[in-house]
Amino acid sequence: MEDRAEQALIARAKAGDPIAYERLLEPAIRSATRLAFAMLHDRSEAEDAFQESALRAWRRLQNLRDGSPFQPWFIGIVANQCREIRRGKWWHLVRLPDANALPRIDDAAWFEGEDLRRAVMRLPYDQRVAILLHFHLDMPLSDVAIALGISQAGVKTRINRALKRLRPAMGVSEVRVNG
């Protein structure tokens, strides 16, 4: 989505236009549901996490800084929602009218190989989410930084620490993230 067009949609959504909000949300649906499934490893919980995140984002849209892109901000909300669910905090199910329109999540294909999937799930949350956002969702480091609310250097540190933990489990030699 072109930056000016996105900023116009954000302004309309902040003014209460639900159609503009839906248009903002549309390009983020696939990435958000893929992240939620990768974090929760349960289709139903992933769909619920997405739905709750969509409602939270709508309610908190005024918190999105002027000029900031929508998708990384929204993905950050999804990541936080998944963390809350994984911690076992209470949460409630919110049904959106078009819940059936969510894309199907391929259970087995979120990462190649069961060993890698298990190793990623054992990573600490901050490292796991950075790895999933950057490598699984192909988000640039700058967007991962926005989604997590940290610097790009912080993202690189988390990814490098995660890769260091994953190497022994996967039998991989030294790899470094530089940019």
Task: Please explain how this structure is put together.
It is a single chain. The chain is built from nine helices and no strands. The chain is mainly α and 179 residues long. It has two domains: 1-95, Orthogonal Bundle (Rna Polymerase Sigma Factor, Chain: A), CATH 1.10.1740; 111-179, Winged helix-like DNA-binding domain superfamily/Winged helix DNA-binding domain (Arc Repressor Mutant, subunit A, Orthogonal Bundle). It has helices spanning 3-14, 18-25, 29-40, 43-59, 70-86, 114-122, 125-136, 141-148, 152-170. The chain is globular, with a radius of gyration of 16 Å. Mean pLDDT is 83; it is low at 89-95 and 107-111. Helices cover 64% and strands 0% of the residues.
Protein traits:
2 domains; Rna Polymerase Sigma Factor, Chain: A; mainly alpha; Arc Repressor Mutant, subunit A; single chain; 179 residues
Annotation, overall tally of beta strands: 0
Tally of individual helices: 9
Topology pattern, helix = H, strand = E: HHHHHHHHH
The CATH topology of the largest domain is given as Rna Polymerase Sigma Factor, Chain: A
CATH architecture of the largest domain: Orthogonal Bundle
Low-pLDDT stretches are 89-95, 107-111
Shape: globular
The CATH class assignment of the largest domain is Mainly Alpha
The percentage helix is 55-70%
Q: DSSP strand (E) fraction?
A: under 5%
CATH superfamily of the largest domain: RNA polymerase sigma factor, region 2, helix turn helix motif
Number of domains: 2
Q: How much is the average pLDDT? A: 83
Distance between the termini: 23 Å
Cα-atom Rg, whole angstroms? Answer: 16 Å
Structural class: mainly alpha
